[in-house]
Amino acid sequence: MKQYLPLFALVLVGLSFSKDIKKAGGETPSDNLKINQIQIIASHNSYHMRTDAAVLRFLNGLYKMHILPADQNPQWIDYNHAPLTEQLEKYGVRGLELDVWNDPEGGRFYDRMCRKFVFKPVASREEALKQPGFKLLHIPDIDFISTNPTLVSALQEIKKWSDAHPDHLPVFINIETEVSTVGDDVKLLKDFCHAAPFDSLASENLDHEVKSVFGEALHGVITPDMVRGNYATLEQAALAGNWPTLQAAAGKVIFIIDGDGNSGDIYKVGHPSLKGRAMFVYSNPGTPEAAFVIKNGAKDEYADIQKCVKQGYIVRTRCDDGTKQARTGDYTDMKAALCSWAQIVSTDYYRPDSRAPSKAWTTYHVQLPGGGIARADSISAPGIQKTFK
After folding, report:
1. How far apart are CA 387 and CA 329, in angstroms?
2. If you ran DSSP here, which 8-state letter would residue 132 be given?
3. Is the dihedral of CA 332, 338, 339, 341 positive or negative?
4. DSSP code of 195?
5. How far apart, in whole angstroms, are the C-alpha atoms of residue 181 and residue 276?
6. Which parts of the chain are beta strand (E)?
7. Is the Cβ–Cβ distance between 108 and 193 less than 8 Å?
8. Cβ–Cβ < 8 Å for 147, 47
9. Ordered DSSP codes for 343-377
């Protein structure tokens, strides 16, 4: 949806791991499986809540009048997520995605300017948005309601849940750095907000915010240094299978940057193979930092995903896009994602839409075959059949 911001703007101008193992058939926490040898369900844009109802009606009206083209349907942002704790606890989600916007001075995202087109006050009244630090939201001024307004508040919630479940499977957290807003793309919208760049200082601040919650030593975080060990590069370590075991990773989280523009490259500067960094970066195979690979097209990139998993990388892919599958009940992409054996399988629908079943909504939702929080990866752990309930 974010790639359609310029046209939108022009129109506007006019459960715990130890318990899970017992349910899986008598296995113990000393399980020798490694973190690249399981497949988990992740939520996409995990903080996202349906935007202001009046704003959504306004955008849908423009679409129905064919002012917006077919590939810019506002219905694609018409979805809600449960709070992060509920996703982790009730639905067994073990992957999260947080879109972060740099806001070093504070207040950059306090106003929601699209509300002026529906004759509502633009001030958010979210006092946390006035403070310096990274903010969580999807599309500033348009799609702006989040379960957690700031990155720190989201991390605090995740850590609180993690501390209460010290044996949980590792939680993979995508950090998507955003660098372009409607106000940046369309200069006529002078009162819409502008993004701050993701630069070297932002990289340091991002690590600082993680450490402010998880501690300077990052004891509850699986870091690139832990995986790289004595290998010359992070990629060499990944290809050699130097990933932590589930026992070593129990109760921990792992961060991966999925950056807009060249944010990932900026984050790597001065840190070869991400030495000393808190986060991994999705990278292309054949580069020193490559340990995590992103291939969101489960059907089109099916063979590539399987190749990368077999080589030792951890791969993230997607089951659905926008709200299309939830409306049509089409499970084709979900089946491709699960059968590709990508380890991180992302969806907006770990539960059916709250309006299903109805004329507009099906009961589409994503779960592992037979249910469960995770299962042994058939490619990276051949011959092993284990499910963690």
Report:
1. 26
2. S
3. positive
4. P
5. 31
6. 38-43, 95-101, 135-136, 171-178, 253-257, 280-281, 292-294, 314-318, 344-347, 374-376, 387-388
7. yes
8. yes
9. SEEEES-SS--TT-SSSS--------TT--SEEE-
For 313, what's the count of Cα atoms within 13 Å in the CB-facing half-sphere? Answer: 28
The whole-model pTM stands at 0.92
SS3 215: coil
Query: Facing residues of 256 across strands?
Result: 174, 280
Can you read off the two tokens belonging to residue 5?
């911001």
The 10s digit of each residue's pLDDT in 44-82 is 999 999 999 999 999 999 889 987 678 778 999 999 999
Tokens coding 173: 């957290």
286 dihedral zone (left: phi>0; alpha: psi -120 to 50; beta): left
Nearest to 142 by CA among 64, 245, 72, 213: 72
Q: First-to-last CA distance in the chain? A: 34
**Residue 3 — very low, low, confident or very high, per pLDDT cuts 50/70/90?**
low
Helix (H, G, I), strand (E, B) or coil at 152: helix
Residues in the chain, how many?
Answer: 389
Q: Would you state the structure tokens that stand for residue 79, as one six-digit string? A: 């979805």
| DSSP, res 322 | T
- Enumerate the β-bridge partners of residue 257: 175, 281
Tens of pLDDT, residues 316-342: 999 999 999 999 999 999 999 999 999
Rounded Cα distance, 115 and 111, in Å: 9
**Rounded to the nearest 10 degrees, how much is the dihedral formed by the CA atoms of 333, 335, 341, 344?**
60
Amino acid at 65: M
